[in-house]
Amino acid sequence: MKLPKKLKNKYNAQSSKCIIGHYHQSIGEAQYCNKLTFLKNAKEIKEIQYQKPYELCVNGQKICNIVVDFVVTWSNGKKEIHEYKGFETPIWNLKHKLFLACYPDIPYIVKRRKDLASWLCGFYK
């Protein structure tokens, strides 16, 4: 099956489909989506938003946008940003710091490729 052209990744990551049928930029991101979907089906998560853009503004002036992988709303109403990163680029590091400064009340959880085995190990047993 040929993947859509728009999902070709400049970092040579392999695009992958998650269990609910949409494509992600990497296999790890798709696996993380699967985990979040499982938690949603178990009623621990109320809502998952995918690839949501946020404006990053400083002193009322828009600097740039960041598109986060997942916005998770837990059953208790608490919102979190969940991001899967194979590796970090200098631009992402800057946008991440700007996000933390612009949205200090929204927790930003980053899962990295090196952590993949440990957080999926117990999940698929």
Layout of helices and strands:
Elements: E1 16-17, E2 23-24, H1 27-41, E3 45-58, E4 61-74, E5 79-85, H2 90-102, E6 108-112, H3 116-121
Parallel strand pairs: 5-6
Antiparallel strand pairs: 1-2, 3-4, 4-5
Account of the protein in words:
The protein has 125 residues and is an alpha+beta fold. It has one domain (14-121): Trna Endonuclease, Chain: A, domain 1 (3-Layer(aba) Sandwich), CATH 3.40.1350.10. The chain is 27% helix and 35% strand. The protein contains three helices and six strands. The chain has helices spanning 27-41, 90-102, 116-121, and strands at 16-17, 23-24, 45-58, 61-74, 79-85, 108-112. It has a four-stranded mixed beta sheet. The chain has a two-stranded antiparallel sheet with strand order 1-2. The model has no long low-confidence stretch (mean pLDDT 84).
What are the salient characteristics of this protein?
125 residues; alpha+beta; Trna Endonuclease, Chain: A, domain 1; two-stranded antiparallel sheet; 27% helix; 35% strand
CATH topology: Trna Endonuclease, Chain: A, domain 1
Q: What is the strand content?
A: 35-45%
Given helix and strand content, the structural type is: alpha+beta
Tally of helical segments: 3
> How many structural domains?
1
- Name of the top-level CATH class: Alpha Beta
- The ordered string of helix (H) and strand (E) elements is EEHEEEHEH
Strand order of the largest sheet: 3-4-5-6
- Major β-sheet, in short? 4 strands, mixed
Termini separation (Å)? 29 Å
The number of distinct β-strands equals 6
Alpha-carbon Rg, integer: 15 Å
Low-pLDDT segments: none
> What's the CATH architecture name?
3-Layer(aba) Sandwich
Mean of all residue-level pLDDT scores: 84
